[in-house]
């Protein structure tokens, strides 16, 4: 049984779901959790439910805000006082920035962006995508311990019936040390929509939208999931949307991670502009529409009914 | 024998292809449709040193060889044959100065093109003289301390934007070839009338016009070589320019091939991508074979230039074969695309329209065959 | 001012990746190599600084195979002054690469004022080297930067985090910055630049020269394989109004649990 520490970030006082994914997967190991700052009892209980034995709250000056140096110094001090074999964290913005520095303080290795793992004879063996997901490889660690691992969020999934841990809680004082790079200010994301070519999610309307005014149902869904709205050539030619919104051969070529085509038949010129999207959802009342041949998830039905329902479902899912 | 490009040549090609993909292809269809002169793209290409590649190092050029020039022109034509015609026209106009000018003339006329963005036109063809270039009627008369130019030129590329003309005329039409002379003319000189832009089938973004010279005074020192040496300059220019024009056809043909392969893998008929059908496979194979053969001829014609070996015969092989192949390949690309290919929504019909001109300008495919036969039978 | 830019050579994004038959790595023989796209932003930032500070010297560093030196030559053609290559296998891990870069910087004898790199290399996507290098050199670092201002020794950078929010950091040189798309628009290498690059100095070292050995390998990859084929799409019939809610609920659920895009 390996001694493992999971570092968790807090988001509005809640532990990030990836922490629970990691804990669930670590079932059978001796897993502690470290958090910088305070965490309330309900969150400790949540961590315990997924297997946390002890939750260590690291406290000290200059740790109110994240800083690569302050966080890595504090965690290193704590980890050195214990004897962990492995340290896990989510491959989040913070995790990706923090873990390489932290691991190097131990001259240790870091396996980044791991999507699955097991312990083979007590040793970590992970799987991770390389070359932008074009291939997978087994990843193992060597050299001084502890070994560090960052886990891609949403990759492991939540364990259905986790084994609970003791969930003991302890405060530890740490020293953030000399912090040279500090956050002076946080600028919230601008509300303006990202350009189609850079959008991570795109909702597109086709000729079946019937009119420009109907695009507002797409806008509503887009607002919920942070998407940018596009249009097919047929919709643009019919005057429902400006050319700047056109996806396809003579419009913009896009490759979002999610593409939702509403009332788009799927002319070859449209497919040419969006075929590299990671996941494609098509909503169309014609079951033989060519768009269904490219869709990962196809819904045969009236978009004017389906889209509003989907918007509501997405709202619920995202807790909005 | 070595068919490999040098490291620099590979880098040059990478850069030119990156430029073609990022700066030219996205604009080529709309500029074609509007007949818009690509002055913005031209200027960007100049800033990167992709145009005027014929200017020698000692006059401020990059010191490229003919092979480097065709590598660049092939890539730019891959981006757009029409735009490349405008870019290449600079080289076609400057080559007579490179090949026939004195050091003073080279310094005076070539160096400014390396210091700021300028456009040049080459004025050879006349309303009644195309293939029969020897029958030029534009007159260059001795006006004492200057030359006096009179006549009319047709199909002059870049004419509406040019900062410099190289004009072929004759000091005496009765002398035929022996009367032909080349002079450098400032397009702002009094007495020059530039006609309206031609509405063409293809290469629609390049600017093509007629130019009329009415008693235009040209300084004496602007004549390249001596009076009557123009024909020799024109002939050696063609040896250099034909590989360049061949490379333009090659770039267009390569684009048609790439687009055909991509489409054939995507388009499904009878339940399989059409690339699985032998009829399409044979067309693609034919295209690939011709592109490669055209490339070998083109590079060889340019390489001979660089070796200082007379390349008239191979240059004609290259120009005729590359342009004829480009026509065939682009026509087949439209065929592979089927109905979509005939639509302006897709890029291949433009390639077919553009290909046609390359069989015509800088010596028609028929003239090239005359040159080949003359060389072979002499 | 001594600016170092770390670049990596990676397979072109269009490359078809094929694992070797023994699964030890990928087939590299027919790969077209390019400069890692994120590194272009780092090179450009260095050149922008050089434009306003003629005393700045830009050195590009790369650890990788010697068979092709495209990335270093491109950086020098864009305007970098000189380069150093540490010859190594293409599948070296981040720790070894960072250690080799540190060694290469020390070999130049120049004290770094600013070290720039791309935020990640698109081959192993590890996102480690800049931070590891910073820690090894005892320097502060900021990763994923999309904004940069320099005034004397003071650096103000914007770091992009989840959801597009920006953290504004202030720090002093020397420091290590990992650059993201959006920071600037990388220039093309000009043709005269390509010709000039031929004459620019490129130092070459072995891993041993910069103090790196096989014992420094921390991460080991094996069993390279293609991901499982994408299954054919799922089609749901919601033409019956009564079923709509159930179908949509199911699809939205799959988008989270199966496709993992929401």
Characterize the structure shown.
- The complex is a heterotrimer of chains A (320), B (378) and C (262).
- In chain A, helix 5 (215-225) packs parallel to helix 9.
- In chain A, the strands form four sheets. In chain A, strands 7-11-6-1-4-5-12 form a seven-stranded parallel beta sheet, sandwiched between helices. In chain A, strands 15-14-16-17-18 form a five-stranded parallel beta sheet. Chain A has a three-stranded antiparallel beta sheet with strand order 8-9-10, with no helix packed on it.
- The model of chain A has no long low-confidence stretch (mean pLDDT 92).
- Chain A has helices at residues 17-25, 41-49, 68-80, 93-104, 215-225, 233-237, 268-274, 291-294, 303-317, and strands at 3-8, 10-11, 14-15, 30-36, 54-59, 86-90, 110-114, 116-120, 123-130, 135-141, 147-151, 168-173, 182-187, 201-205, 228-231, 258-262, 279-284, 297-300.
- Helix content of chain A is 27%, strand content 29%.
- Chain B is built from twelve helices and ten strands.
- Chain B is globular.
- Chain C has a nine-stranded mixed beta sheet with strand order 9-8-7-10-6-1-4-5-11, sandwiched between helices. Chain C has a two-stranded antiparallel sheet with strand order 2-3.
- Chain C has six helices and 13 strands.
- The chains are: A alpha/beta (320), B alpha+beta (378), C alpha/beta (262).
- At the A-C interface, helix 3, helix 4, strand 7, strand 10 and strand 13 of A face helix 3, helix 4, strand 7, strand 8 and strand 9 of C.
Q: Notable features of this structure?
A:
heterotrimer, B: 378 residues, alpha+beta, four-stranded mixed sheet, 54% helix, C: 262 residues, two-stranded antiparallel ribbon, 6 helices, 13 strands
Provide a quick synopsis of the model:
The complex is a heterotrimer of chains A (320), B (378) and C (262). Chain B is 54% helix and 14% strand.
| Count of helical regions of chain C | 6
**What order do the SSEs of chain C take from the amino end to the carboxyl end, as H and E?**
EEEHEHEHEHEEEEHEEEH
Largest interface: A-C, 80 and 84 residues
Question: How would you classify the helix and strand content of chain A by structural class?
Answer: alpha/beta
What overall geometry of chain A do the principal axes of the alpha carbons give?
Answer: elongated
| Number of E-state strands of chain A | 18
Q: Helix fraction of chain C?
A: 25-40%
Radius of gyration of chain A: 23 Å
Secondary structure: number of strands of chain C: 13
Main sheet strand line-up of chain A: 7-11-6-1-4-5-12
The strand order across the widest sheet of chain C is 9-8-7-10-6-1-4-5-11
Distance between the termini of chain C: 46 Å
> What gap, in angstroms, lies between the N and C termini of chain A?
41 Å
């Amino acid at each position: 049984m390996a001694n493992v520490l999971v570092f968790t970030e807090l988001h509005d006082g809640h532990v990030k779901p990836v922490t629970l994914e990691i804990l669930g997967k670590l079932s059978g190991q001796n897993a502690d959790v470290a958090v910088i700052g305070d965490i309330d009892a309900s969150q400790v209980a949540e961590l315990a439910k997924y297997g946390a034995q002890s939750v260590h709250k690291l406290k000290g000056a200059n740790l109110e805000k994240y800083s690569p140096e302050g966080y890595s110094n504090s965690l290193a001090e704590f980890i050195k006082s214990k004897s962990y074999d492995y340290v896990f964290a989510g491959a989040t913005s913070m995790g990706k920035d923090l873990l390489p520095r932290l691991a190097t303080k131990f001259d240790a290795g870091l396996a980044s962006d791991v999507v699955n793992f097991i312990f083979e004879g007590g040793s970590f063996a992970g799987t991770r995508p390389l070359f932008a997901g074009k291939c997978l490889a087994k990843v193992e660690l060597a050299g001084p311990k502890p070994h560090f691992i960052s886990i891609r969020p949403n990759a492991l999934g939540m364990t259905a019936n986790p084994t609970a841990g003791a969930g003991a809680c302890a405060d530890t004082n740490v020293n953030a040390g000399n912090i040279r790079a500090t956050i002076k200010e946080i600028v919230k994301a601008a509300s303006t929509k990202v350009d189609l070519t850079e959008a991570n999610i795109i909702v597109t309307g086709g000729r079946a939208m019937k009119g420009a005014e109907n695009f507002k149902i797409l806008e509503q869904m887009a607002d919920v999931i942070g998407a940018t709205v596009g249009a097919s050539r047929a919709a643009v030619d019919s005057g429902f949307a400006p050319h700047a919104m056109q996806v396809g051969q003579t419009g913009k070529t896009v490759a979002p991670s999610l593409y939702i085509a509403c009332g788009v038949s799927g002319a070859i010129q449209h497919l040419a502009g969006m075929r590299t999207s990671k996941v494609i959802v098509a909503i169309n009342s014609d079951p033989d529409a060519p768009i269904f041949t490219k869709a990962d998830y196809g819904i045969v039905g009236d978009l004017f009914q389906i889209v509003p329902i989907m918007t509501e479902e997405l709202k619920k899912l995202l807790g909005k | 024998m070595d068919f490999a490009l040098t490291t620099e040549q590979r880098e040059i090609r990478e850069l030119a292809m990156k430029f073609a993909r990022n700066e030219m292809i996205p604009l080529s269809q709309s500029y074609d449709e509007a007949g818009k002169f690509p002055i913005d793209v031209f200027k960007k290409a100049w800033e990167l040193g992709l145009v005027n590649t014929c200017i020698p190092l000692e006059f401020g050029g990059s010191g490229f060889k003919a092979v480097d020039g065709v590598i660049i022109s092939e890539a730019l034509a891959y981006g757009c044959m029409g735009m490349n015609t405008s870019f290449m026209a600079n080289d076609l106009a400057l080559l007579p100065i490179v090949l026939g000018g004195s050091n003073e003339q080279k310094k005076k006329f070539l160096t400014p093109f390396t210091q700021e963005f300028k456009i040049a036109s080459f004025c050879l063809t006349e309303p009644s003289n195309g293939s029969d270039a020897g029958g030029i009627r534009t007159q260059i008369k001795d006006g004492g301390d200057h030359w006096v130019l009179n006549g009319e030129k047709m199909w002059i590329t870049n004419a509406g934007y040019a900062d410099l003309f190289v004009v072929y005329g004759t000091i005496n039409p009765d002398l035929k070839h022996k009367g032909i002379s080349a002079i450098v003319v400032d397009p702002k000189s009094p007495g020059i009338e530039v006609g309206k832009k031609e509405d063409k089938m293809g290469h629609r973004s390049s600017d093509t016009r007629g130019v009329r010279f009415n008693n235009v005074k040209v300084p004496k020192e602007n004549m390249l070589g001596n009076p009557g040496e123009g024909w020799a300059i024109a002939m050696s220019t063609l040896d250099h320019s034909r590989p360049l024009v061949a490379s333009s056809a090659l770039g267009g043909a390569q684009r048609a091939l790439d687009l055909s392969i991509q489409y054939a893998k995507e388009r499904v008929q009878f339940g399989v991508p059409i690339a699985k059908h032998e009829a399409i496979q044979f067309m693609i194979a034919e295209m690939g074979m011709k592109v490669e053969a055209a490339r070998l001829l083109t590079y060889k014609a340019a390489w001979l230039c660089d070796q200082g070996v007379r390349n008239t015969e191979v240059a004609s092989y290259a120009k005729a074969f590359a342009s004829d192949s480009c026509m065939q390949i682009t026509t087949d690309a439209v065929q592979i695309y089927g109905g979509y290919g005939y639509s302006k929504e897709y890029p291949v019909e433009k390639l077919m329209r553009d290909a046609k001109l390359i069989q015509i300008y800088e010596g028609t495919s028929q003239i090239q065959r005359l040159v080949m036969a003359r060389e072979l039978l002499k | 001012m001594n600016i170092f830019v770390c670049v990596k050579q990676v397979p072109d994004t269009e490359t078809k990746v094929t694992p070797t038959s023994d699964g030890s790595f990928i087939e590299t023989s027919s790969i077209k190599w390019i400069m890692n796209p994120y590194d272009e932003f780092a090179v450009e930032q260095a050149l922008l600084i050089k434009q306003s500070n003629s005393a700045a010297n830009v050195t590009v560093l790369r650890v990788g195979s010697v068979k092709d030196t495209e990335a270093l030559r491109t950086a020098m053609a864009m305007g970098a002054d000189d380069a150093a290559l540490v010859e190594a296998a293409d599948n070296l891990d981040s720790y070894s690469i960072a250690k080799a870069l540190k060694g290469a910087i020390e070999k130049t004898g120049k004290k770094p004022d600013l070290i720039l790199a791309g935020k990640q290399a698109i081959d192993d996507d590890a996102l480690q080297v800049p931070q590891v290098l910073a820690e090894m050199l005892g320097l502060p670092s900021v990763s994923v930067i999309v904004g940069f201002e320099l005034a004397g020794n003071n650096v103000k950078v914007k770091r992009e985090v989840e959801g597009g929010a920006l953290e504004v950091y202030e720090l002093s040189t020397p420091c290590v910055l990992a650059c993201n798309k959006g920071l600037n628009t990388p220039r093309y290498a000009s043709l005269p630049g390509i010709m000039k690059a031929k004459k620019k100095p490129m130092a070459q070292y072995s891993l041993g020269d910069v103090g790196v050995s096989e014992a420094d390998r921390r991460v080991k990859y094996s069993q390279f394989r293609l991901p499982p084929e994408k299954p054919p799409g799922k089609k749901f019939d919601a033409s019956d109004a009564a079923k709509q809610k159930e179908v949509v609920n199911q699809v939205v659920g799959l988008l989270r649990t199966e496709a993992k895009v929401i």
